[in-house]
Amino acid sequence: MAGLKELRNRIEAIKSTEKITSAMKMVAAARLRKAQDVMEKNTAYRQNLLVTAGRLWHMLHRQALETKQTISLPLICRHHEKAETYLLVVLSSDKGLCGSYNSSIVRAAMLRTEELKACGKNVKIICLGTRCYNALKRHYSQEIVRSSLSVANQGVEYEEARTLASEIMSMFMAEDIDVCEIVYSHFRSAMSRDVKSEQVLPLAPTMLENASDMCEDAFFESEPTAEDMFTQIMLLVFKEIIFNIMIHSQASEQGARMTSMDNATRNAKDMISKLTLRYNRMRQSAITTELVEIIAGAEAV
Q: What domain range is 242 assigned to?
């Protein structure tokens, strides 16, 4: 009977675990829906911003052809002759229970760091997320310049993107870094994510070439000058890129956690079913044994 009691306690424990994983799945699903809503709302702003920047770029390009002069690019778009120092911003979560989400990001960050070091580059790392910091500090404690909690804990806000963008820009303008890349998980669906290392500084104006194909022949006057407007709008584009990356990182984390908790709930149900079947068989066997003993004793009397 000790075996039956042990199985019964184990089944109850797994049922409690199933309730927890099921609740975590529902919480992650709700947060994922919120993140997807933010992504959808941000899409219109992103497209309009790129179209406006694309119009200015085409106008500057056309004016340069007419005057036979080169375009004076803003500092945010200027590549350094010798890109020696790279900044890697790594986005991960603070908590686990989200499958291979964090390990994939850490692996990509380590791989990119080793690639840059092999090319003779200096690497600086900013960790946004406890998981990536704990993993990277074992190998790259000297390269980590700052670490903080994940930006997706309470939901990404645009102000957080502005703060991070200002920090990166300050390092770039002070020539502390030459290139900035962000390692994050790009959201595709709740079941699909791609880990990327995306360069965000310096910006390439070529990204705007296909942004406004319908407006190449449009003419408009601007005040201040087109160059000043292009400089200002590229700063907005940079902040938008940072914000978009943060949103994708948040959605990927919640999608990974929802999928992981769903698998855990399914596994718990399967285990409960198997243990219940085993418990019933042992119980039936014990009852049969007791009946046989009672019958044998009655016959002996």
A: 36-258
The rounded distance, in Å, linking the Cα atoms of 205 and 79 is 11
Same domain flag for 120 and 91? yes
In contact, 64 and 71? CB cutoff 8 Å: yes
> What distance in Å separates the CA atoms of residue 118 and residue 110, rounded to the nearest whole number?
12
Half-sphere exposure of 107 (CA within 13 A, CB side): 8
**107 domain residue, yes or no:** yes
Please indicate, yes or no, if residue 78 is contained in any of the structural domains.
Answer: yes
- The arrangement of strands across the sheet holding 179-189 comes to 144-148, 122-128, 85-91, 179-189, 192-201
- φ, ψ (nearest 5 deg) of residue 219: -125, 135
pLDDT in tens, 139-188: 888 889 998 888 776 678 888 889 999 999 999 888 888 899 999 999 98
pTM (two decimals): 0.84
Q: Give strand pairing partners of 297.
A: none
What is the Cα–Cα distance from 85 to 121, expressed in whole angstroms? 6
E strands along the chain, which residues?
Answer: 85-91, 122-128, 144-148, 179-189, 192-201
